[in-house]
Amino acid sequence: MPTLRRQLPSANALFVFESAARCGNFTKAAAELGVTQPAVSRMLSLLEDHLEVQLFLRTPNGTVLTENGQILYRGISEGFQSIEKAIQEIRARSTGLETVTLSVSTAFTTHWLMPRMHELQAEFPSLDLRFQLISGSVSGSVEDVDLGVRFVSGEDVHHQAALIMPEILVPVCSPAYREQHVSDKPHDSGVTLISLSDSRIDWFELFPCFQNEASGTAHSLIFSDYAVVLQAALLGQGIAVGWMNIVSHWLDTGALVPATVKPIAIATERLCHLIHSRKKPLSQAAAEVRDWIIDETRKDVAKVAKRYPELELDALTRR
């Protein structure tokens, strides 16, 4: 540590550099730090002079990191994350609360987790659960969270992964919508297909039966948030593609039903995992939450499999 002190003009330079690198703009960094933009520029110039390297390239639209700047930013970010985790652990010890942060979709939170939140709280009474919510297709870094739900093939050099289940898709709708619109006899009204705007799902490729069931004109409702897609289906507005790891609760309760004459489900090549960064060891609380989510999901799917044996979920989940 004494060597590190000699390599820096001041410890404050680390905070100024991290903010400027993350914001990509000295003015934004100054606002975040509560200082003036010239003060940020002076501190960073002093840091560059001290290290005898250029850390930023100034452009008309802001700043970008040089290769040396990227190396320093990686090291500082990892160090700050470790410090933050240590502080959180200390606070948890003093308050008795443990914090677990999840990076999940708004749909997962709204339609899978919320209906069983009381069960989660009963299982983990000292847990402080926080969310980084994603409205569209699930993706993004999990560096700043404990766990993230992602569709990945498995572990890699950067992440550890625990399998929840294969990606299984089922067309779903409300019971009233099915009774009115889904039939093996042609009718003129057609159906309304509710979709996610940035989804890779091609209705007629994955579910060719809709070429026939959508007799007349198939109408569309397209939303950027999958939570809204499912809410529309629950309200009887049309048929949605149901990701089994999210819609299993509603299929089990009967609020949603398979939206075809003969219930069908397909498994894709993707796998749904709970992942976390190898840079951030998983806490005992996070590991317990991970195991609880996996166990509850599989229980749900088993109930749906019993309710709708035609979906052949047992075979699909073993793939």
TrEMBL record:
UniProt keyword terms in alphabetical order: DNA-binding, Transcription, Transcription regulation
Highest taxon of source: Bacteria
UniProt xrefs under Pfam families: HTH_1 (PF00126), LysR_substrate (PF03466)
HTH lysR-type domain span: 9-66
PROSITE patterns: HTH_LYSR (PS50931)
Family assignment from sequence similarity: Belongs to the LysR transcriptional regulatory family.
Protein name: LysR family transcriptional regulator
Provenance organism: Billgrantia aerodenitrificans
